[in-house]
UniProtKB/TrEMBL annotation:
Cellular component per GO, a single term: bacterial-type flagellum basal body
Residue stretches making up the Flagellar hook protein FlgE/F/G-like D1 domain: 113-174
Subcellular location: Bacterial flagellum basal body
One GO biological process term: bacterial-type flagellum-dependent swarming motility
NAD in keyword set: no
Domain of life the protein comes from: Bacteria
One Pfam family, short name: Flg_bbr_C
Name of the protein in question: Flagellar hook-basal body protein
Keywords: Bacterial flagellum, Cell projection, Cilium, Flagellum
InterPro entries: Flag_bb_rod_N (IPR001444), Flagellar_FlgE/F/G (IPR020013), Flg_bb/hook_C_dom (IPR010930), FlgE/F/G-like (IPR037925), LlgE_F_G-like_D1 (IPR053967)
Family named by the database record: Belongs to the flagella basal body rod proteins family.
Cytoplasm keyword on record: no
Domain named Flagellar basal body rod protein N-terminal: residues: 6-35
């Protein structure tokens, strides 16, 4: 019976975490470049149950020999193993704002490959994003809406001096007679990137530094100025999955309550000494 408590509780915790992931997706449904998270559920490792016993040998000394008998296997429920971002392309939306940019994926030699903008966070570290909702700050630098510098191919902030500029499909910022290549990184396995918040991604500890997309001849892409990539969150599907997670949570909750009533009866009635 106690085993049933743990199984039902594990199911409730898993569905609660899944609900939190779906809620976060729904909250960011209108965030440009946002990639929805997918919670993966996995069962706990299967356990093998054995009965420990001993048999008395028919000898003058009556020695006991320890033995074990296999009873069977048991599974103790499920848990959320990890949340994985889904990097599928979001729909493009025209804004008409020259500082807005969207990455349009083309051919990717790797199934989980993706192209990302490079920016510099408040600590001066390089981060990656699909959110091209950029602006120009008071000093004339191209920045994200959070105030992070957008980097060029050499890893330096892009200074516009407040002048108008054009962005070519190859990702070159044409400004004052010069072409400044945007910092566009290619990740062969975007699933290894770690979400940091505010639409930023960082590398995993064991992940190699990302290379410039222009160094990968097999990758095709284009930059569309005056447009933004919408999130890839399907609001109808997300709401449906949230209802499903709630129902699953409710089912596990009822199982837990049934075990609780059975335990109460066992303690207060069956175990009563008259």
């Amino acid at each position: 019976m106690l085993r049933g408590y743990y199984t039902a509780t594990a199911g409730m915790i898993a569905q609660q975490r899944r609900q939190e992931t779906l809620s976060n997706n729904l909250t960011n449904a209108l965030t440009p470049g946002y990639k929805r998270d997918q919670a993966t559920l996995k069962s706990f490792p299967e356990l093998l149950i054995q009965r420990m016993e001993s048999n008395t040998m028919p000898t003058s000394q009556g020695r006991r020999i320890p033995q074990s008998t296999t009873i069977g296997s048991i599974n103790t429920g499920v848990y959320v193993q990890e949340t994985i971002p889904d990097f599928t392309q979001g729909a493009l939306r025209a804004t008409g704002t020259t500082t807005d940019m969207a990455i349009v994926n083309g051919t990717m030699p790797d199934e989980t490959g993706n192209v990302l903008f490079t920016v510099q966070n408040g600590d001066g570290d390089v981060r990656y994003t699909r959110n091209g909702n950029f602006t120009v700050d008071g000093q004339g630098y191209l920045t994200s809406n959070e105030g992070y510098y957008v980097l060029n191919q050499d890893g330096n902030p892009i200074l516009t001096d407040g002048q108008e500029f054009n962005v070519t499909p190859e990702g070159n910022v044409e400004l004052a007679g010069q072409a400044i290549p945007l910092g566009l990184a290619y990740s062969p396995d975007a699933n290894q990137l770690i979400k940091e918040g505010e639409g930023l991604y960082q590398l995993a500890e064991d992940q190699e530094a990302l290379t410039d997309v222009r160094d990968n001849a097999d990758v095709t892409y284009s930059i569309q100025q005056g447009s933004l990539e919408d999130s890839n969150v399907d609001m109808n599907q997300t709401v449906t999955e949230m209802m499903q997670a709630y129902r699953n949570f409710e089912t596990n909750q009822k199982v837990l309550q049934a075990y609780d009533r059975s335990m109460e009866k066992a303690v207060n009635e069956i175990g009563r000494v008259t």
